[in-house]
Amino acid sequence: MKYNRLGRSGLKVSALQLGTMTFGGQGFFAKTGKVDATGAKRMVDMALDAGVNMIDTADVYSEGVSEEIVGEVLAGRRKDVLLATKARFPMGPGPNDQGLSRHHIVEACEASLRRMKTDYIDLYWCHEWDGLTPVEETLCALDELTRAGKIRYFGVSNFAGWHVMKYLGAADLHGLNRPIAQQIHYTLQARDAERELMPIAVDQDVAAVIWSPLAGGLLTGKYRRNQPEPDGTRRAEEWDEPPVYDTDALYDIVETLIEVSEEHGDATPAQVALAWLLGRPGVASLVVGARTEAQLQANLKAVDVTLSPEASSRLERVSRLPLSYPYWHQANTAADRLSPADLALIAPYLPS
Questions:
Q1: What secondary structure letter does DSSP report for 12?
Q2: What was the pLDDT predicted at 228?
Q3: How far is it, in rounded angstroms, from Cα 232 to Cα 250?
Q4: Same-domain pairing of 309 and 338
Q5: Within this chain, do residues 311 and 224 fall inside the same structural domain, yes or no?
Q6: What is the pLDDT of residue 236?
Q7: Residues designated as active site
Q8: pTM of the entire structure?
Q9: 141 and 36 share a domain?
Q10: Rounded to an integer, what distance in angstroms lies between the CA atom of residue 142 and that of residue 283?
Q11: Are residues 327 and 301 in the same domain?
Protein backbone atom coordinates (compact mmCIF):
# COMPACT_ATOMS: atom_id res chain seq x y z
CA MET A 1 0.00 0.00 0.00
CA LYS A 2 1.13 3.57 -0.66
CA TYR A 3 0.50 6.41 1.79
CA ASN A 4 0.09 10.10 0.99
CA ARG A 5 0.06 13.20 3.16
CA LEU A 6 -3.49 14.52 3.40
CA GLY A 7 -3.44 18.15 2.34
CA ARG A 8 -1.82 20.71 4.61
CA SER A 9 -1.53 18.31 7.54
CA GLY A 10 0.82 15.71 8.90
CA LEU A 11 -1.73 12.93 8.45
CA LYS A 12 -0.75 10.04 6.17
CA VAL A 13 -3.61 8.19 4.46
CA SER A 14 -3.56 5.07 2.34
CA ALA A 15 -3.94 5.58 -1.41
CA LEU A 16 -7.06 3.43 -1.18
CA GLN A 17 -9.53 3.63 1.67
CA LEU A 18 -12.58 1.51 2.40
CA GLY A 19 -15.96 3.03 1.62
CA THR A 20 -18.96 1.71 3.54
CA MET A 21 -21.97 3.01 1.63
CA THR A 22 -22.88 -0.61 0.90
CA PHE A 23 -23.00 -1.49 4.62
CA GLY A 24 -26.46 -1.87 6.09
CA GLY A 25 -28.75 -2.05 3.08
CA GLN A 26 -31.41 0.21 4.58
CA GLY A 27 -33.74 2.64 2.79
CA PHE A 28 -32.45 4.49 -0.26
CA PHE A 29 -28.91 3.15 0.14
CA ALA A 30 -30.07 -0.45 -0.29
CA LYS A 31 -29.65 0.25 -4.02
CA THR A 32 -25.87 0.38 -3.56
CA GLY A 33 -25.54 -2.88 -1.64
CA LYS A 34 -26.73 -4.86 1.37
CA VAL A 35 -23.58 -5.90 3.22
CA ASP A 36 -24.42 -7.09 6.74
CA ALA A 37 -22.17 -6.97 9.81
CA THR A 38 -20.60 -10.36 9.07
CA GLY A 39 -19.75 -9.40 5.50
CA ALA A 40 -18.56 -5.98 6.65
CA LYS A 41 -16.13 -7.54 9.11
CA ARG A 42 -14.61 -9.66 6.35
CA MET A 43 -14.26 -6.62 4.10
CA VAL A 44 -12.64 -4.58 6.87
CA ASP A 45 -10.25 -7.46 7.57
CA MET A 46 -9.32 -7.63 3.88
CA ALA A 47 -8.76 -3.88 3.68
CA LEU A 48 -6.60 -3.71 6.80
CA ASP A 49 -4.57 -6.72 5.66
CA ALA A 50 -3.91 -4.84 2.39
CA GLY A 51 -2.59 -1.81 4.31
CA VAL A 52 -5.69 0.39 4.15
CA ASN A 53 -5.63 2.74 7.15
CA MET A 54 -8.84 4.76 6.69
CA ILE A 55 -12.50 3.73 6.71
CA ASP A 56 -15.04 6.16 5.30
CA THR A 57 -18.70 6.28 6.29
CA ALA A 58 -21.49 8.84 6.80
CA ASP A 59 -24.38 9.32 9.16
CA VAL A 60 -26.88 9.23 6.28
CA TYR A 61 -25.69 5.85 4.91
CA SER A 62 -28.51 3.39 5.61
CA GLU A 63 -29.96 5.86 8.13
CA GLY A 64 -27.06 5.40 10.55
CA VAL A 65 -26.79 1.63 10.24
CA SER A 66 -23.51 1.86 8.31
CA GLU A 67 -21.93 3.78 11.20
CA GLU A 68 -23.28 1.22 13.67
CA ILE A 69 -21.77 -1.65 11.69
CA VAL A 70 -18.43 0.15 11.41
CA GLY A 71 -18.39 0.67 15.18
CA GLU A 72 -19.19 -3.00 15.74
CA VAL A 73 -16.48 -4.38 13.45
CA LEU A 74 -13.83 -1.99 14.79
CA ALA A 75 -14.35 -3.05 18.41
CA GLY A 76 -10.94 -3.68 19.94
CA ARG A 77 -8.96 -2.18 17.06
CA ARG A 78 -10.18 1.41 16.82
CA LYS A 79 -6.65 2.78 17.29
CA ASP A 80 -5.45 0.86 14.24
CA VAL A 81 -7.72 2.80 11.87
CA LEU A 82 -8.39 6.38 10.80
CA LEU A 83 -12.15 6.83 10.86
CA ALA A 84 -14.01 9.34 8.68
CA THR A 85 -17.68 10.19 8.71
CA LYS A 86 -19.91 12.99 7.44
CA ALA A 87 -22.78 15.30 8.34
CA ARG A 88 -25.15 17.58 6.45
CA PHE A 89 -28.06 15.56 5.06
CA PRO A 90 -31.37 15.04 6.90
CA MET A 91 -31.25 12.69 9.89
CA GLY A 92 -34.74 13.45 11.15
CA PRO A 93 -37.99 15.20 10.24
CA GLY A 94 -37.30 18.52 11.94
CA PRO A 95 -36.16 21.73 10.19
CA ASN A 96 -32.87 21.66 12.14
CA ASP A 97 -32.11 17.99 11.54
CA GLN A 98 -29.96 18.86 8.52
CA GLY A 99 -27.50 21.44 7.26
CA LEU A 100 -24.22 22.83 8.57
CA SER A 101 -25.53 25.00 11.40
CA ARG A 102 -23.74 24.82 14.75
CA HIS A 103 -26.87 23.15 16.13
CA HIS A 104 -26.90 20.34 13.59
CA ILE A 105 -23.13 19.78 13.34
CA VAL A 106 -22.73 19.38 17.10
CA GLU A 107 -25.80 17.16 17.36
CA ALA A 108 -24.76 15.06 14.35
CA CYS A 109 -21.23 14.61 15.66
CA GLU A 110 -22.45 13.41 19.04
CA ALA A 111 -24.85 10.97 17.37
CA SER A 112 -22.11 9.58 15.11
CA LEU A 113 -19.80 9.09 18.07
CA ARG A 114 -22.52 7.11 19.85
CA ARG A 115 -23.32 4.94 16.83
CA MET A 116 -19.66 4.16 16.16
CA LYS A 117 -18.86 3.66 19.86
CA THR A 118 -15.81 5.89 19.70
CA ASP A 119 -14.56 9.00 21.51
CA TYR A 120 -13.25 10.80 18.44
CA ILE A 121 -13.54 11.07 14.65
CA ASP A 122 -10.28 11.39 12.74
CA LEU A 123 -11.72 13.18 9.72
CA TYR A 124 -15.13 14.86 9.75
CA TRP A 125 -16.59 15.79 6.38
CA CYS A 126 -19.11 18.51 5.61
CA HIS A 127 -21.04 16.23 3.26
CA GLU A 128 -22.53 18.95 1.05
CA TRP A 129 -22.60 22.73 0.72
CA ASP A 130 -25.11 24.65 2.87
CA GLY A 131 -25.79 28.04 1.33
CA LEU A 132 -28.05 29.18 4.17
CA THR A 133 -25.62 28.88 7.09
CA PRO A 134 -22.88 31.51 7.44
CA VAL A 135 -19.50 29.88 6.81
CA GLU A 136 -18.16 31.41 10.04
CA GLU A 137 -20.83 29.57 12.03
CA THR A 138 -19.88 26.24 10.49
CA LEU A 139 -16.16 26.82 10.89
CA CYS A 140 -16.52 27.90 14.53
CA ALA A 141 -18.56 24.79 15.32
CA LEU A 142 -15.93 22.55 13.70
CA ASP A 143 -13.18 24.44 15.54
CA GLU A 144 -14.98 23.88 18.85
CA LEU A 145 -15.33 20.16 18.14
CA THR A 146 -11.63 20.00 17.32
CA ARG A 147 -10.64 21.76 20.54
CA ALA A 148 -12.90 19.39 22.47
CA GLY A 149 -11.07 16.41 20.97
CA LYS A 150 -14.19 15.04 19.28
CA ILE A 151 -12.80 15.50 15.77
CA ARG A 152 -9.17 15.78 14.72
CA TYR A 153 -9.43 17.15 11.19
CA PHE A 154 -12.23 18.20 8.90
CA GLY A 155 -12.84 18.48 5.19
CA VAL A 156 -15.50 19.47 2.69
CA SER A 157 -17.36 17.39 0.13
CA ASN A 158 -19.30 18.23 -3.01
CA PHE A 159 -18.42 21.94 -2.79
CA ALA A 160 -17.91 24.20 -5.79
CA GLY A 161 -14.55 25.91 -6.16
CA TRP A 162 -15.75 29.23 -4.78
CA HIS A 163 -17.32 27.43 -1.82
CA VAL A 164 -13.96 25.89 -0.92
CA MET A 165 -12.16 29.21 -1.28
CA LYS A 166 -14.79 30.93 0.88
CA TYR A 167 -14.13 28.41 3.68
CA LEU A 168 -10.37 28.83 3.33
CA GLY A 169 -10.59 32.61 3.32
CA ALA A 170 -12.87 32.75 6.35
CA ALA A 171 -10.73 30.26 8.28
CA ASP A 172 -7.56 32.25 7.62
CA LEU A 173 -9.25 35.57 8.42
CA HIS A 174 -10.56 34.39 11.79
CA GLY A 175 -7.68 32.13 12.80
CA LEU A 176 -9.77 28.96 12.60
CA ASN A 177 -8.81 25.48 11.44
CA ARG A 178 -8.89 25.04 7.67
CA PRO A 179 -10.35 22.09 5.80
CA ILE A 180 -7.43 19.81 4.92
CA ALA A 181 -9.13 17.88 2.14
CA GLN A 182 -12.08 17.76 -0.22
CA GLN A 183 -13.99 14.59 -1.00
CA ILE A 184 -15.20 14.89 -4.57
CA HIS A 185 -16.33 12.93 -7.59
CA TYR A 186 -13.64 12.71 -10.28
CA THR A 187 -13.17 9.92 -12.82
CA LEU A 188 -12.27 9.30 -16.44
CA GLN A 189 -16.01 9.53 -17.12
CA ALA A 190 -16.50 12.79 -15.19
CA ARG A 191 -13.56 15.19 -15.27
CA ASP A 192 -15.50 18.35 -14.38
CA ALA A 193 -13.51 18.67 -11.15
CA GLU A 194 -10.42 19.56 -13.16
CA ARG A 195 -11.83 23.01 -13.96
CA GLU A 196 -11.71 24.36 -10.39
CA LEU A 197 -11.43 21.73 -7.67
CA MET A 198 -8.22 19.99 -8.77
CA PRO A 199 -6.33 23.29 -9.25
CA ILE A 200 -7.46 24.21 -5.71
CA ALA A 201 -6.11 20.86 -4.49
CA VAL A 202 -2.70 21.72 -5.94
CA ASP A 203 -2.60 25.45 -5.17
CA GLN A 204 -4.15 25.45 -1.69
CA ASP A 205 -3.00 21.95 -0.66
CA VAL A 206 -6.59 20.84 0.02
CA ALA A 207 -6.09 17.24 -1.06
CA ALA A 208 -8.64 15.45 -3.21
CA VAL A 209 -10.18 12.24 -1.87
CA ILE A 210 -12.26 10.67 -4.62
CA TRP A 211 -15.67 9.09 -4.07
CA SER A 212 -17.08 6.57 -6.54
CA PRO A 213 -13.80 6.44 -8.50
CA LEU A 214 -15.28 3.79 -10.84
CA ALA A 215 -18.26 6.01 -11.69
CA GLY A 216 -20.74 3.75 -9.95
CA GLY A 217 -19.44 0.73 -11.86
CA LEU A 218 -19.50 2.34 -15.31
CA LEU A 219 -15.72 1.97 -15.65
CA THR A 220 -15.45 -1.67 -14.62
CA GLY A 221 -15.81 -3.03 -18.17
CA LYS A 222 -19.28 -4.45 -17.48
CA TYR A 223 -21.00 -1.74 -19.52
CA ARG A 224 -20.25 -2.19 -23.24
CA ARG A 225 -21.47 -0.65 -26.44
CA ASN A 226 -24.43 -2.46 -28.05
CA GLN A 227 -24.74 -4.84 -25.11
CA PRO A 228 -27.55 -5.01 -22.52
CA GLU A 229 -26.87 -3.51 -19.11
CA PRO A 230 -25.74 -6.17 -16.63
CA ASP A 231 -28.00 -7.37 -13.83
CA GLY A 232 -27.17 -6.94 -10.16
CA THR A 233 -25.63 -3.46 -10.51
CA ARG A 234 -26.46 -0.03 -9.11
CA ARG A 235 -27.79 1.03 -12.50
CA ALA A 236 -30.12 -1.95 -12.52
CA GLU A 237 -31.42 -0.68 -9.17
CA GLU A 238 -32.04 2.74 -10.80
CA TRP A 239 -29.12 4.44 -9.03
CA ASP A 240 -28.49 7.48 -11.24
CA GLU A 241 -25.12 8.75 -10.00
CA PRO A 242 -23.07 9.77 -11.84
CA PRO A 243 -25.23 11.06 -14.70
CA VAL A 244 -24.22 10.02 -18.21
CA TYR A 245 -24.62 12.86 -20.72
CA ASP A 246 -22.76 11.26 -23.63
CA THR A 247 -23.14 7.48 -23.90
CA ASP A 248 -20.87 7.17 -26.92
CA ALA A 249 -18.08 9.03 -25.11
CA LEU A 250 -18.49 6.69 -22.14
CA TYR A 251 -18.16 3.61 -24.34
CA ASP A 252 -15.07 5.10 -26.03
CA ILE A 253 -13.48 5.41 -22.58
CA VAL A 254 -14.48 1.86 -21.63
CA GLU A 255 -13.03 0.42 -24.84
CA THR A 256 -9.74 2.20 -24.20
CA LEU A 257 -9.70 0.94 -20.60
CA ILE A 258 -10.15 -2.61 -21.86
CA GLU A 259 -7.35 -2.19 -24.41
CA VAL A 260 -4.97 -0.77 -21.81
CA SER A 261 -5.84 -3.49 -19.28
CA GLU A 262 -5.02 -6.17 -21.86
CA GLU A 263 -1.65 -4.50 -22.43
CA HIS A 264 -0.88 -4.53 -18.69
CA GLY A 265 -0.95 -8.24 -18.00
CA ASP A 266 -3.54 -9.29 -15.47
CA ALA A 267 -4.88 -5.78 -14.77
CA THR A 268 -8.63 -5.30 -15.04
CA PRO A 269 -10.31 -2.23 -16.58
CA ALA A 270 -11.37 -1.17 -13.09
CA GLN A 271 -7.81 -1.39 -11.77
CA VAL A 272 -6.57 0.66 -14.73
CA ALA A 273 -9.20 3.34 -14.07
CA LEU A 274 -8.16 3.52 -10.42
CA ALA A 275 -4.46 3.59 -11.28
CA TRP A 276 -5.02 6.49 -13.69
CA LEU A 277 -6.70 8.50 -10.94
CA LEU A 278 -3.92 7.78 -8.46
CA GLY A 279 -1.49 9.40 -10.89
CA ARG A 280 -3.40 12.68 -11.18
CA PRO A 281 -2.06 15.87 -9.54
CA GLY A 282 -3.70 16.65 -6.20
CA VAL A 283 -5.25 13.21 -5.64
CA ALA A 284 -4.40 11.74 -2.23
CA SER A 285 -6.75 8.78 -1.87
CA LEU A 286 -9.61 6.89 -3.50
CA VAL A 287 -12.64 5.62 -1.58
CA VAL A 288 -13.33 2.09 -2.83
CA GLY A 289 -16.41 0.22 -1.75
CA ALA A 290 -17.88 -3.03 -2.95
CA ARG A 291 -20.99 -5.16 -2.97
CA THR A 292 -18.92 -8.35 -2.75
CA GLU A 293 -15.61 -9.47 -1.31
CA ALA A 294 -14.39 -10.39 -4.80
CA GLN A 295 -14.96 -6.83 -6.01
CA LEU A 296 -13.09 -5.41 -3.03
CA GLN A 297 -10.19 -7.83 -3.41
CA ALA A 298 -9.80 -6.83 -7.07
CA ASN A 299 -10.01 -3.10 -6.36
CA LEU A 300 -7.38 -3.27 -3.63
CA LYS A 301 -4.87 -4.57 -6.18
CA ALA A 302 -5.06 -1.32 -8.16
CA VAL A 303 -2.13 0.09 -6.17
CA ASP A 304 0.08 -2.53 -7.81
CA VAL A 305 -0.78 -1.35 -11.35
CA THR A 306 1.74 1.02 -12.93
CA LEU A 307 0.55 2.55 -16.18
CA SER A 308 2.99 3.40 -18.91
CA PRO A 309 3.16 7.10 -19.88
CA GLU A 310 1.71 6.19 -23.27
CA ALA A 311 -1.25 4.38 -21.69
CA SER A 312 -1.94 7.28 -19.33
CA SER A 313 -1.86 9.67 -22.28
CA ARG A 314 -4.31 7.57 -24.28
CA LEU A 315 -6.74 7.50 -21.36
CA GLU A 316 -6.35 11.24 -20.89
CA ARG A 317 -7.03 11.96 -24.57
CA VAL A 318 -10.10 9.74 -24.88
CA SER A 319 -11.72 11.30 -21.80
CA ARG A 320 -10.60 14.92 -22.25
CA LEU A 321 -13.25 17.63 -21.93
CA PRO A 322 -13.33 20.72 -24.16
CA LEU A 323 -11.36 23.55 -22.58
CA SER A 324 -13.90 26.12 -21.35
CA TYR A 325 -13.46 29.86 -20.87
CA PRO A 326 -11.29 31.45 -19.50
CA TYR A 327 -8.98 28.46 -19.75
CA TRP A 328 -8.80 28.24 -23.54
CA HIS A 329 -7.85 31.92 -23.57
CA GLN A 330 -5.16 31.33 -20.94
CA ALA A 331 -3.83 28.36 -22.91
CA ASN A 332 -3.55 30.59 -25.99
CA THR A 333 -2.11 33.72 -24.38
CA ALA A 334 -0.65 32.93 -20.93
CA ALA A 335 1.17 29.65 -21.39
CA ASP A 336 4.50 31.28 -20.48
CA ARG A 337 3.31 32.20 -16.96
CA LEU A 338 1.19 29.33 -15.68
CA SER A 339 1.58 27.86 -12.19
CA PRO A 340 1.52 24.15 -11.29
CA ALA A 341 -2.13 24.62 -10.26
CA ASP A 342 -2.96 26.13 -13.66
CA LEU A 343 -1.16 23.32 -15.41
CA ALA A 344 -3.15 20.70 -13.47
CA LEU A 345 -5.93 21.60 -15.91
CA ILE A 346 -4.29 23.26 -18.91
CA ALA A 347 -1.10 21.20 -19.47
CA PRO A 348 -2.67 18.53 -21.73
CA TYR A 349 -4.04 21.23 -24.07
CA LEU A 350 -0.69 22.93 -24.67
CA PRO A 351 1.52 22.02 -27.64
CA SER A 352 3.94 19.25 -26.69
A1: E
A2: 75
A3: 20
A4: no
A5: yes
A6: 47
A7: 61
A8: 0.95
A9: yes
A10: 24
A11: no
